[in-house]
Design a protein that fits this description.
This is DUF420 domain-containing protein. The protein has 131 residues and is mainly alpha-helical. The protein has one domain. The chain is built from 4 helices and no strands. Helix 3 runs antiparallel to helix 4. It is elongated. It starts with 9 loop residues before the first helix and ends in a 6-residue tail after the last helix.
Length: 131
């Protein structure tokens, strides 16, 4: 993923945070079977962990980050990410009428889609695929 030809950047750190958060989220889903309280706490930590990375992404976008030839992919990533954050806020702030399985399943699908698109955007931006 990281090569000797370029220095470590904040984008690399952001990706590492996203990967860590996704793995922790999968662990939170696993914990759901044993303890809903533990599941909720771990998922909440995951949301806050991702929030630090999202702030950096918003900063990058504000500075004019573009992805030549792939801006529709970036737009889809941003749309899914916005929806993911919206649902995450509802769950973390304990809006109980939203805390039902169908909405949480939707959140997992959105988060997974956003994560995979984000990794793809990263790989395209740094020329690691289709360069």
């Amino acid at each position: 993923m990281f090569s000797d030809s370029r220095p470590f950047t904040l984008s690399d750190l952001s990706l590492m945070i996203q990967i860590l958060a996704f793995v922790v989220l999968l662990y939170a889903i696993y914990c759901k079977r044993k303890s809903m309280a533990k599941h909720g706490k771990i998922a909440e930590v995951t949301f806050y962990l991702v929030s630090t990375s999202v702030i950096y992404m918003l900063y990058s976008r504000g500075r004019g980050f573009i992805l030549p030839y792939y801006n529709s992919l970036l737009g889809l990533h941003m749309l899914l990410g916005t929806l993911t954050i919206f649902f995450g806020i509802l769950f973390v702030t304990n809006r109980w009428k939203w805390k039902v399985k169908k909405y949480m399943d939707l959140e997992i699908l959105l988060w997974t889609g956003t994560f995979l698109l984000g990794v793809t955007v990263y790989l395209l931006f740094f020329g690691l695929i289709f360069s």
